């Protein structure tokens, strides 16, 4: 960015990044509703999706407040187009099989839990309050997805193979969670949020332990796709997702019930 | 099917409940996942404070065909009910 970013602009970007992550992942996970391999997993995934959508209301609600032009969380979720979204690419990639969905959930939950732990001491009391409330839900998400990754990774020959394939496919999307830019520098200076790069050590320790239990091998490559959280470039998948998620507001503008 | 997860019976102690009550059953690969599944299936409307799960094949049950010998003899023994005593108020709820 050539022009310096103001604190309010940076704060808005930070809130969109948090809220768009939970919104897009929540939608992706909800796509399993009625399609999971077993009833118990179906309900568990729907619960996770609902938690994430609920968390989105907090983050995008606050984003609307900070933006100050009267947009609600619903407006931000349903009336923006692809280039306005600030979620990381990891959460927008298609679900794939059940194993890949759970691997993505685990890779995200691990970051999410650490991030919310840091945000609980945010200098902004509203951010700290959201982090406090949502961290309990996310602690459970992480426990569940980690258990499932271990169960499937250290399971049958086929489940192990699928989980390793999932990890290989998703690994290049992990790095984006730890990239810092001018928005992050401003949030660090304001004491609102931690530097993303500072989460990497704790994250690596956590996932290395779980993935070792799962008998899975972390790929060597540090190559990372990026562009989602800065809004520079999303994958082709986000547009397709939005046509589903925003269909009703596009077909019947302003409708509500 | 042989590769299906075992069946677990779920018992939940509610917000003000004194004891765990049977609420239903579910499938899970092990006890830990059975508790997690029970949390997701049976406590999503804030029903619970505590969860027990028991693998269904560990429950010994009486047989419906023994109904006569087991239960009918007590039908005619009203004197076994403690309704013939005056309970002092100080005792409170029993």
Question: How does the SSE layout of this entry go?
Answer:
The complex is a heterodimer of chains A (257) and B (94).
Chain A: H1 7-30, H2 39-67, H3 73-78, H4 98-119, H5 125-153, H6 157-170, H7 182-189, H8 200-213, H9 236-245, H10 247-251
Helix pairs in contact in A: 1-2, 1-7, 2-5, 4-5, 4-6, 4-8
Chain B: E1 7-14, E2 21-27, H1 31-42, E3 48-55, H2 67-75
Antiparallel strand pairs in B: 1-2, 1-3
Provide structural commentary.
The complex is a heterodimer of chains A (257) and B (94). Chain A has 257 residues and is mostly helical. Chain A has ten helices and no strands. Chain A has helices at 7-30, 39-67, 73-78, 98-119, 125-153, 157-170, 182-189, 200-213, 236-245, 247-251. In chain A, helix 1 packs across helix 7 and helix 4 (98-119) packs antiparallel against helix 5 (125-153). The termini of chain A are far apart. Chain B has 94 residues and is an alpha+beta fold. Chain B has one domain: Phenylacetic acid degradation B (Ubiquitin-like (UB roll), Roll), CATH 3.10.20. Helix content of chain B is 22%, strand content 24%. Chain B contains two helices and three strands, in the order ββαβα. Chain B has helices at 31-42, 67-75; strands at 7-14, 21-27, 48-55. A three-stranded antiparallel β-sheet of chain B has the order 2-1-3, covered by helices on one side. In chain B, a hairpin with a 6-residue loop joins strand 1 and strand 2. The longest helix of chain B has 12 residues, at 31-42. The termini of chain B are far apart. The mean pLDDT of chain B is 88. The chains are: A mainly alpha (257), B alpha+beta (94). Chain A binds chain B through residues 38-40, 43-44, 47, 140, 143-144, 147, 151, and chain B through 5, 26-29, 32-33, 36-37, 39-41, 44.
């Amino acid at each position: 960015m050539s022009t310096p970013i103001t604190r309010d602009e940076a704060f808005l970007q930070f809130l969109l990044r948090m809220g768009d992550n939970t919104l897009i992942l929540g939608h992706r996970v909800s796509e399993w509703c009625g399609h999971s391999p077993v009833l118990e997993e179906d309900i568990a995934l729907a619960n996770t999706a609902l938690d994430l959508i609920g968390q989105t209301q907090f983050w995008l609600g606050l984003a609307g407040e900070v933006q100050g032009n009267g947009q609600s969380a619903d407006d931000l979720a349903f009336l923006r187009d692809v280039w306005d979204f600030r979620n990381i690419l990891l959460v927008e990639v298609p679900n794939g099989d059940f194993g890949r969905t759970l691997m993505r959930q685990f890779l995200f939950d691990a970051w999410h839990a650490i991030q919310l732990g840091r945000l609980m001491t945010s200098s902004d009391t509203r951010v700290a309050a959201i982090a406090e409330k949502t961290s309990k839900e996310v602690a459970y998400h992480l426990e569940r997805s980690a258990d499932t990754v271990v169960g499937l990774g250290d399971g049958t020959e086929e489940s192990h193979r699928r989980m390793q394939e999932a990890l290989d496919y998703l690994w290049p999307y992990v790095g984006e969670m730890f990239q810092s830019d001018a928005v992050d520098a401003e949030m660090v200076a304001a004491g609102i949020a931690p530097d993303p790069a500072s989460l990497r050590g704790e994250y690596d320790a956590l996932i290395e332990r779980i993935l070792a239990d799962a008998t899975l091998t972390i790929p060597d490559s540090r190559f990372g796709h990026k562009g989602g959280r800065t809004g520079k470039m999303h994958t082709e998948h986000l547009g397709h997702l939005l046509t589903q998620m925003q269909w009703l507001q596009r077909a019947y503008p302003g409708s509500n019930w | 099917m042989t590769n299906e997860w075992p069946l677990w019976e779920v018992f939940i102690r509610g917000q003000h409940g004194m004891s765990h009550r049977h609420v239903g059953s579910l499938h899970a690969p092990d006890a830990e996942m059975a508790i997690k599944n029970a949390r997701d299936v049976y406590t999503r409307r804030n029903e619970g404070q505590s969860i027990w799960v028991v693998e269904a094949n560990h429950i010994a049950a009486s047989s419906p065909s023994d109904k006569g010998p087991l239960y009918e003899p007590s039908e005619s023994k009203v004197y076994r009910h403690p309704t013939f005593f005056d309970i002092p108020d100080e005792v409170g709820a029993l």
